[in-house]
Amino acid sequence: MQAKHGNIYRRMPFYYGWVMVGAGTIGMLLSIPGQTIGVSVFTDFLIDALHLSRDQLSLAYMIGTLSSAAILSASGVLLDRWGSRRFGSIVAALLGLSLLVLSYIDGIVDAASRTLTLLPPGLTAMIIMSAGFFLLRFLGQGSLTLVSRNLPMRWFVKRRGMVSAIVGTFVSFGFNSAPAFFDRLIQAAGWQGAWRISGLIVLILGVSLYVILVRDNPESVGLKPDGEPADPGDELTRNLEKHTDAPGDDAADQVKAPDMSLSEAVKTARFWVYGLSVGLSSLYITGFTFHVVSIFAEAGIGRSIAVSVFIPVSIISVIVNALVSFASDFIRLKWILATLLSGLMISMIGINFLQPGFVFTAIIILGNGLAGGSFNSLTTLTWPRFFGTTHLGAISGFIMGILVAGSALGPIMLSASLSIAGGYGAAAAVLAGTAALLFLSGMILSEPAAPGKD
Length: 454
Known about the structure:
- The protein contains 19 helices and no strands.
- By secondary structure, the chain is mostly helical.
- It has 2 domains: about 1-225, MFS general substrate transporter like domains (Growth Hormone, Chain: A, Up-down Bundle); about 240-445, MFS general substrate transporter like domains (Growth Hormone, Chain: A, Up-down Bundle), CATH 1.20.1250.
- The longest helix is centred in the middle third of the chain and has 54 residues, at about 160-215.
């Protein structure tokens, strides 16, 4: 059977890995309903429909997100065991069905409140909404993002940087266009209708995409990564996935990274330095996005300016992502890590000194753009380069858990800073100090040479 498939895919006029690039990109875009940028548009409608306060809905969101983070590592193990095709189709189906169910959340809460009379209606709504947020975050932000982001990385080795740049460009524009898209959809069909339409799109398109087009890796169809035809039985093909490019500082010297299991990866310092760095970015950027209007209001700046920062941020992010992703084929990843953490520190400094006028708003835009573009590259490229691809699902799943946990804690941390310290500067200062420590750690870490290389 493998030989038959191999003949089909070898006769194609293009390398089938490029189809996986497209599939991974579409899969990432289909995860938007479970991302903060997709959920936030529905916040006010849920508050009104479920008769919850903003604090109650935020708490439900945090509970659902943290619960998702707690089990995402197991999701990565399933990805390694089942493969991208089977895992992705199941996750897409479940996310689509979850969106359809959540479109009836007001009726579900009302029926539950009449049944569970011993519980206050607000508590019943919070419990049910926490479960709903868990489904969105686990299936959308977590699992579908996990499988879609890793899919192209299994098909490319030498061109991972270029592939990351391509995917990151489309995903960045798609994510930043999502609020306007959902807002128009809500105006046309109502918030319930918007979730139903989204659910049907994810269910039909997502399942079809993974069942019909997706293949787990090039070896399964008789190919090699990057498009070289291969004999599925030869030794080079069997061992190819155990090697990745880990270029030097000034030139792309081949450095092979051995496959590591999750238990082996967590024993390395670079796992935690890079993992905590992208986790810090997730925490800060989510908190900033969640409170952006309030952050600018504290500085005497209006809502229109606050929400307008995302457009220039997305432009800078796309440019930075393209540059660092292409450069990653020739440089060590610590320089991209430095860009990420420098961007975070720049933005955090901007928050501490924010005031009416262009300068500090521009500083925040620049910092967030640098961080956003670098984040996209690091979350895609780091794990296969350092730890191989055999256990990529488990390792990426663990990291995804850190990212999701950070996204849950960010809004709470910044809100606490406002309540306790009277502003967002205190939280920004603490986070900037953390970023500085990670920056220094990343600079002194050495990226490993090939096993047996002096």
